[in-house]
Amino acid sequence: MTLYNLTLIDNDLGEQFNIGYFSTREIADATARDYLKNVRGFCEYNCGCSITEKEAVGSKAPVDVFIVFGWNGYESDIVESDLYATEALARRRLAEMKSEYDREEWCVDRFRVDARKWQEGFVRV
What we know:
Layout: E1 2-10, E2 15-22, H1 25-38, E3 47-57, E4 64-72, E5 76-84, H2 87-100, E6 105-112
Parallel strand pairs: 3-5
Antiparallel strand pairs: 1-2, 1-3, 4-5, 4-6
Protein backbone atom coordinates (compact mmCIF):
# COMPACT_ATOMS: atom_id res chain seq x y z
CA MET A 1 0.00 0.00 0.00
CA THR A 2 1.25 3.48 -0.82
CA LEU A 3 1.28 5.92 2.09
CA TYR A 4 2.15 9.62 2.13
CA ASN A 5 4.71 10.87 4.64
CA LEU A 6 4.20 14.48 5.73
CA THR A 7 7.30 16.27 6.97
CA LEU A 8 7.14 19.92 8.03
CA ILE A 9 10.33 21.94 7.78
CA ASP A 10 11.52 25.07 9.58
CA ASN A 11 13.14 26.62 6.50
CA ASP A 12 15.30 29.03 8.51
CA LEU A 13 16.89 26.40 10.78
CA GLY A 14 16.51 23.30 8.61
CA GLU A 15 14.74 21.43 11.44
CA GLN A 16 12.38 18.70 10.22
CA PHE A 17 9.25 17.38 11.95
CA ASN A 18 7.80 14.02 10.89
CA ILE A 19 4.06 14.58 11.26
CA GLY A 20 2.90 11.16 10.10
CA TYR A 21 1.92 8.76 7.36
CA PHE A 22 -1.39 9.27 5.58
CA SER A 23 -3.53 7.02 3.40
CA THR A 24 -4.08 9.67 0.70
CA ARG A 25 -2.19 12.68 -0.60
CA GLU A 26 -5.33 14.75 0.01
CA ILE A 27 -5.29 13.98 3.75
CA ALA A 28 -1.57 14.79 3.92
CA ASP A 29 -2.13 18.09 2.04
CA ALA A 30 -5.04 19.10 4.29
CA THR A 31 -3.00 18.27 7.40
CA ALA A 32 -0.06 20.36 6.12
CA ARG A 33 -2.34 23.33 5.43
CA ASP A 34 -3.82 23.06 8.94
CA TYR A 35 -0.38 22.97 10.60
CA LEU A 36 0.98 25.87 8.53
CA LYS A 37 -2.09 27.97 9.37
CA ASN A 38 -2.93 26.99 12.96
CA VAL A 39 -0.20 25.12 14.87
CA ARG A 40 2.24 27.05 17.06
CA GLY A 41 5.65 27.54 15.47
CA PHE A 42 4.64 26.21 12.08
CA CYS A 43 2.29 29.15 11.49
CA GLU A 44 4.64 31.73 13.08
CA TYR A 45 7.90 31.02 11.25
CA ASN A 46 9.07 30.39 7.70
CA CYS A 47 7.95 26.78 7.42
CA GLY A 48 7.16 24.53 4.50
CA CYS A 49 6.32 20.92 3.93
CA SER A 50 7.34 17.85 2.01
CA ILE A 51 5.04 14.96 1.11
CA THR A 52 6.72 11.78 -0.11
CA GLU A 53 5.30 8.42 -1.12
CA LYS A 54 6.35 5.33 0.81
CA GLU A 55 5.29 1.73 0.34
CA ALA A 56 4.17 -0.27 3.36
CA VAL A 57 5.57 -3.82 3.27
CA GLY A 58 3.43 -6.68 4.54
CA SER A 59 -0.20 -5.54 4.28
CA LYS A 60 -2.62 -3.95 1.86
CA ALA A 61 -4.23 -1.62 4.43
CA PRO A 62 -2.32 -1.39 7.72
CA VAL A 63 -3.73 0.52 10.70
CA ASP A 64 -0.23 1.03 12.11
CA VAL A 65 3.12 1.07 10.36
CA PHE A 66 6.60 0.58 11.79
CA ILE A 67 9.87 2.10 10.64
CA VAL A 68 13.47 1.62 11.75
CA PHE A 69 15.68 4.65 12.40
CA GLY A 70 19.42 4.69 13.12
CA TRP A 71 21.50 7.77 13.93
CA ASN A 72 24.72 9.15 15.38
CA GLY A 73 25.01 11.84 18.04
CA TYR A 74 22.23 14.38 18.10
CA GLU A 75 20.14 12.83 15.32
CA SER A 76 22.81 13.13 12.62
CA ASP A 77 23.58 10.69 9.80
CA ILE A 78 20.05 9.28 10.03
CA VAL A 79 19.16 6.12 8.12
CA GLU A 80 15.63 4.80 7.85
CA SER A 81 13.99 1.65 6.61
CA ASP A 82 10.95 1.05 4.50
CA LEU A 83 7.58 1.00 6.29
CA TYR A 84 6.40 -2.31 7.69
CA ALA A 85 2.87 -3.42 8.54
CA THR A 86 4.05 -5.41 11.57
CA GLU A 87 6.54 -4.77 14.32
CA ALA A 88 8.03 -8.23 13.75
CA LEU A 89 8.96 -7.32 10.15
CA ALA A 90 10.48 -4.03 11.34
CA ARG A 91 12.52 -5.78 14.05
CA ARG A 92 13.82 -8.25 11.50
CA ARG A 93 14.91 -5.32 9.33
CA LEU A 94 16.48 -3.65 12.41
CA ALA A 95 18.77 -6.66 12.87
CA GLU A 96 19.81 -6.48 9.21
CA MET A 97 20.40 -2.72 9.30
CA LYS A 98 22.60 -2.99 12.39
CA SER A 99 25.01 -5.10 10.36
CA GLU A 100 24.78 -2.79 7.30
CA TYR A 101 25.20 0.61 9.01
CA ASP A 102 27.46 1.85 11.80
CA ARG A 103 25.12 3.91 13.98
CA GLU A 104 25.19 4.70 17.71
CA GLU A 105 21.43 4.65 18.32
CA TRP A 106 18.55 2.62 16.89
CA CYS A 107 14.79 2.54 17.31
CA VAL A 108 11.66 1.03 15.84
CA ASP A 109 8.99 3.71 15.71
CA ARG A 110 5.25 3.13 15.37
CA PHE A 111 2.92 5.42 13.44
CA ARG A 112 -0.87 5.16 13.28
CA VAL A 113 -1.95 5.73 9.67
CA ASP A 114 -3.83 9.05 9.26
CA ALA A 115 -2.86 10.21 12.77
CA ARG A 116 -0.75 13.24 13.65
CA LYS A 117 2.28 12.08 15.59
CA TRP A 118 3.86 15.52 16.16
CA GLN A 119 1.01 17.61 17.60
CA GLU A 120 2.48 20.15 19.97
CA GLY A 121 4.07 22.58 17.53
CA PHE A 122 7.37 24.17 18.51
CA VAL A 123 9.03 27.31 19.86
CA ARG A 124 12.44 28.78 19.18
CA VAL A 125 14.64 29.61 22.16
